[in-house]
Amino acid sequence: MSATPAFSVVVPAYNATRTISATIGSILRQSRSDLELIVVDDGSSDGTSDLVRELGLGDDRLRLVEQPNKGTAGARNTGIAEARADLIAFLDNDDMWMPQYLERMEAALAKAPEAGFGYTDAWVLNDATGRIRKKPSLEHHPPIPDPASPGDLLARFLTGLNFVMSSTTVRREVLEATNGFDERIRGADDFDLWIRIAAKGYDAVRADGINLVQRDRSDSQSKDLPMMIENARAVLRNAAANDDLSEADMATASASVEELGRFLETLSGERKASALAWRLRRRLAPMRQRMTRDRIFMAELPPEIADALPELLGTDRSEA
What pTM was estimated for this model as a whole? Predict the structure, then answer.
């Protein structure tokens, strides 16, 4: 590969042999082919690197970088250091792009030169059943204006609301101005970066359409609500000490840390008080899921998803 690509795509990978084939396939089939794909194997022990090498045979756009385990933020930063394009896009190793992701993201950023990064809505794929939720991801959040002013964007983040999924496209100069991902943060390093970008005065822009398919996995960190709250509190503590924020914004961040702490205490107390009820609900969960599945999930993959992501066909495990 000689010409500088328009896009550098960074995929951090750790023990990802089950999902990364679909992820890489969705990137290499983009309507914009002028890209480089940098997969950073972050100390995997399951043969992820061997699989990535196999998937990249015959396509010199894919590069594999191997390193000892440093965490997702460290893997993303390694990818940024390797990237050659001015637009750097991130995708998790178990998610997938629709074919127009890069095309629509570039168009959105071109129309919004004040935006530091672009984000998108996502279809939510239940990993256990292979079925798609009827409502896309952003419909589960309060109304989100687009485009939002930088001040409004920052204010929303400082209340603890992170509506931006990890699949974003960020301008290189913005990553340089903010020093990339904070490797000291685990589980919410992307939220921390969005706050720091907004604190620098940058806007964010949402690309047209639904351009991401995001796996909802039972073993994902997002299922551990107390841990997610603690991660958000750590990010907001950092924001409360960020010199780029006004005193009022620092106070908002501090207040959110306290509010989330109170919620965490309440959640802990409720869990202890209702352990028996929780176990009962867990036993009844499979039955409840079967009863509500058709109300929540589409009966089959939408044609546009089935055509774009053939790896997902035949994965319906709804009776499992």
Answer: 0.88
